[in-house]
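Progress note, project year one: complex with nicotinamide-adenine-dinucleotide.
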Amino acid sequence: MRTIDVELAGRAYEVRVGPGLLERLGEECGPLLRKDTVPVITDAQVAALYRDKVDAALAAVGKQARWLVLPAGEQTKSWAQLAQVVDFLLAEGVDRNDRIVALGGGVIGDLTGFAAAILKRGCGFVQLPTTLLAQVDSSVGGKTAINVPMGKNLVGAFHQPSLVLADTDVLATLPPRELRAGYAEVVKYGLIDDAEFFAWCETNGPGLLNGDAKARIEAVSRSVAAKARVVAEDERETTGTRALLNLGHTFGHALEAETGYSSALLHGEAVAIGMVLAARYSVRRGLMEQHEADRIAAHFMACDMKAEVAELALDCGGRRLADHMLHDKKMDAGTLPFLLMRGIGRTFLARDVEIDDVASFLDAELRSHHPAG
Ligand code: NAD
Ligand code: GLY
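Model obtained:
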């Protein structure tokens, strides 16, 4: 098992990564679980796979899980489900110093974390992330949120967990498409500021996706360590450092908005294409060499992932995608900061991007067929 510290004054916590953590849940949490009953929030798909294991792990330390099982899927990050979680926790008599357990992907982690943030003005929670995306990104760093009709993640809070247990065994049951979507966020850390990690991904990514357990532990640990560094430096995204974690997300969100935030395009799939677009746009601006942008697209293709926006066959032009960007929550006083690259591992925040130029770039990308690799 690897342990990564998230160093935040007064709110520091550990992220433990490795196999078998769910089976040792009771021991791993130790005194964090104060009462004989432990509230566990999950979704139906995860419950079907891991409820018995969690029940047994808690029973082994004399505790009983009290379950709230919600529907699986993004629509669960809603006001209605938030109310259900809060009512359940109140009925369970959860106090401020208790810990709520979130067992699932980013949907369950974000929703439960937000409920924990507002319950009795804030109580503790433990993240048991079960998707690759949740293990490498959403369970670490304390961003919690729900979606509202005006957009995704528009209502939420910064609220750090007390502990994160990333059991890499559970990735074995994750559908391949979800695994690949989460892998985009792994690659992101290499592209931001760690060219050596990107090279590691080139060598190990296909194996990781095909079941290499050691590579999964390494990828999750390195990703969490990268995220922990950024969060310790800029917890509330005020200095610009944490904003680097949004590489590929501005382009990606435009694609998600155009596809209706539906299963037609998963978040990680949009981010992968978004990072390729950010790299190519950086080439267009004379910041990055073409062959480096090609390397990124080639890596996603080697991992059986889509790298080309043209492959989505969207029925729109660049202007419409650019218009979606204007609703991005990163908009700041009428300007949209963009993450661009000077090379692999050399991402920076640009504040001088003209949206009309992005629109004409996207027009060309929507129609173009880049040579594979
Ligand atoms: P998800 O939680 O919907 O999980 C994807 C699917 O996989 C679900 O159907 C789920 O039931 C299933 N699943 C989960 N674990 C499984 C397992 N081990 N085996 C089989 N099936 C399993 O989606 P996600 O991709 O984990 O998270 C997406 C959410 O995360 C979005 O709402 C996004 O906004 C949020 N997010 C938050 C942050 C943050 O910093 N808080 C960062 C990135 C993304
Ligand atoms: N996923 C982006 C962040 O946590 O800041």
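Residues 137, 141, 143, 242, 245 surround glycine (ligand 2) (CB under 6 Å).
The domain at 176-367 is CATH 1.20.1090.10 (Dehydroquinate synthase-like, alpha domain).
No further modelling is planned for this target in the current period.
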